[in-house]
UniProtKB/TrEMBL annotation:
UniProt xrefs under PANTHER family: ALDEHYDE OXIDOREDUCTASE MOLYBDENUM COFACTOR ASSEMBLY PROTEIN (PTHR30388), MOLYBDENUM COFACTOR INSERTION CHAPERONE PAOD (PTHR30388:SF4)
Ranges for domain XdhC Rossmann: 120-231
Domain of life: Bacteria
Protein name (record): XdhC family protein
InterPro entries: MoCofactor_Util/Proc, XdhC_CoxI, XdhC_Rossmann_dom
Classification lineage: Bacteria, Bacillati, Actinomycetota, Actinomycetes, Kitasatosporales
Coiled-coil spans in chain: none
Gene3D superfamilies listed in its UniProt record: NAD(P)-binding Rossmann-like Domain (3.40.50.720)
Residues of the XdhC- CoxI domain: 14-77
Length: 293
């Protein structure tokens, strides 16, 4: 990426904001984009960078937002109408832009999603082993004091103080809405602590106590392994938070699927509301050139 684009990507990553990295990998003249051109597509559909003209950009925006919500990478082929010379690429998604001025493009779209965030409370050997295992899994970790609430979008909280601030940590995690809370304690102490807190049935269901899967763990690393195995199950069962996908419409002139944003050309007439891929199709509609689909 360029320096400015790299800095923007780093900023979004540090803030745990999902985005899509788009890179042109093949281009056919007279396309305005070139191999290596890059852009960041934000969750609201705005684009930083350059990966093609107005029509190509619209196709990239729509496909990138789909990839962001599906969570997987995508190779997008943007072809002019009637073009058959650009070599096929198996597995690519193909869009045909009737309004494309010419030249075909292939653009690789890679969602950049924040890793699951696991908060660990305590400085015990089990807590330290949990942090180490989470790092091996590629998860982000945060260390917290018992009286502090978990950070936003925390996937799980592991309470491993072993008697130091456990009640405060559980209450803070429950109040923050964390869906999975693992309490490192014996069956007897865990039951007594949960009774002491006076939890509702719904709150009790969010606390795994004792923490982890029953694998006969004894040592701190074994206990941490059992806890993180359960956390992996929870993480994969939950979908990573992504921004709500903007609404879409079909351009009545060229038939393209258009992601609707503040700058999307549109008209309101007696026939209804219409959105367009660009000002060219909007002008054709206004001048009487109805759907060519």
């Amino acid at each position: 990426m360029t320096g400015k684009l790299s800095a923007r990507a780093l900023e979004l990553t540090e803030r745990r904001v999902p985005f899509v990295h788009a890179r042109v990998v093949r281009a056919q003249a007279p396309a305005s984009a070139h191999p290596g051109d890059e852009a960041i597509v934000h969750g609201d559909g705005t684009i930083d960078g350059f990966v093609g003209g107005q029509c190509a950009e619209g196709s990239v925006r729509t496909a990138a937002l789909g990839a962001l919500h599906d969570g997987g990478p995508l190779l997008l082929r943007v072809l002019p109408q009637g073009d058959a010379e650009f070599p096929e690429t198996p597995g690519a998604r193909v869009v045909v832009n009737p309004c494309l001025s010419g030249g075909a493009l292939e653009i690789f779209l890679e969602p950049v999603l924040p890793p699951p965030l696991i908060e660990v409370v305590g400085t015990t050997p089990v807590a330290e082993a949990c942090v180490a295992f989470a790092a091996l899994l590629g998860y982000a970790t945060a260390r917290s004091l018992p009286e502090l609430p978990p950070t936003a979008h925390t996937s799980a909280v592991i309470v491993a103080g072993q008697g130091r601030g456990d009640a405060e940590s559980l209450r803070a995690a429950l109040d923050a809405g964390v869906g999975h809370i693992a309490l490192v304690a014996s069956h007897r102490r865990a039951a007594a602590l949960l009774d002491e807190l006076g939890l509702t049935e719904a709150e009790r269901a969010r606390v795994q106590a004792p923490a982890g899967l029953d694998i006969g763990a004894r040592t701190p690393p074994e206990i941490a392994l059992s806890i993180l195995a359960d956390v992996v199950r929870v993480v994969h069962a939950a979908k990573a938070p992504v921004p709500e996908r903007p609404s879409q419409a079909v351009d009545p002139v060229c038939g393209m699927t258009v992601t609707v944003g503040p700058d999307t050309p549109h008209l309101t007439t007696g026939e209804g509301e219409f959105w367009f891929c660009g000002t060219g199709c909007q002008g054709r509609w206004t001048s009487g050139g109805r759907a060519t689909g």
